[in-house]
Design a protein that fits this description.
Length: 145
């Protein structure tokens, strides 16, 4: 990966809707060259997709929280299958240490938070932390030089 690929990744992470023409101007490369680089980055699994960032609060999910699941009472695959279908869970990470999973959820209010905790309790110990603020979000990820 060269400096142009790094710059391309930086621009796209800042604005995923940037056109090939705009990237071409900013990087002083032809549009076909930009398209080829994008294709190579996708084929190598460096760019895994494109999407919109949605404000949870703007769509009525005013409470975001981190949930730590420990001492699972079911096999991990069963737990993962269950939470895959729970729309309140927006991220799930299987981790090392005393906690088995760290989840991120977005709910509409305290009643929905309580219902989510009750849905998770049969699977293990549930520890919730409400997110007050997120000083670092969606940080640009680039390879180390």
């Amino acid at each position: 990966m060269d400096q142009l690929d790094r710059a391309l990744l930086r621009w796209l992470q800042e604005d995923g809707r940037m056109t090939v023409s705009e990237l071409s101007k900013r990087l002083a490369l032809s549009r076909p060259s930009i398209s080829e680089r994008l294709l190579r980055l996708q084929e190598r699994g460096i760019i895994t997709g494109f999407g919109a960032r949605v404000s949870a609060a703007a769509v009525g999910r005013n409470i975001q929280l981190i949930i730590q699941m420990s001492e699972l009472k079911v096999f991990p695959m069963e737990f993962e299958k269950r939470i895959m279908n729970d729309e309140d869970i927006i991220e799930c990470h299987r981790v090392t240490g005393t906690v088995s999973y760290i989840l991120k959820a977005a709910v509409t209010g305290m009643d929905a938070l309580s219902e989510l905790v009750e849905r998770l309790m049969p699977f293990g110990n549930v520890n919730t932390s409400v997110i007050l603020s997120s000083p670092v979000m969606n940080r640009t990820i680039l390879p180390k030089e």
